[in-house]
Amino acid sequence: MTDNENIDDDGLELKSKTQIKREVEALQHLGKLLLEVPDAVYKSFPIPAELDSALQETRRIKSNQALKRQYQYIGKVMRRIDAEPIQQAYDDYKNGRKKLAREFQRLEEVRDQLVTGDQDALNQVIAEFPAVDIQQLRQLIRAAQQEKKLNKPPKNYRKLFQVLKSLKEEST
Question: Which domain of life is it from (predicted)?
């Protein structure tokens, strides 16, 4: 099969039924993903009124068969609109959450290093966050170490994380 067989008389590329079906399913899947986004973030997405009303209706539906039909309707609506800006907004939201999760994991690792007594980690925190109250930080580290040794609830352990998190937010 040559490349010329996939091009019609107007010079446009022909799509197979399978390819069209995949694109429709991808749009339906994007619609399902939009339903999982928190309302505060959802409102910032560039969603047309017709699609917005279809998504709001989907949130009220409980029946599985009705949901299936509604998802198909969402796919139909999304075929008529340009879904690229919506997809881009969703991708930006998802990537932002992944970045935030990575930052939290890094802060947790630093906290764990501080509690185990790693002096290099303490020096790194002091260098990275010059506004840190060193005395308070050391008190929290000692209290967290004491809690760990006595098998007490990790109150200061959590507080240490909150201090690191607030320092990170202040620095950005």
Answer: Bacteria
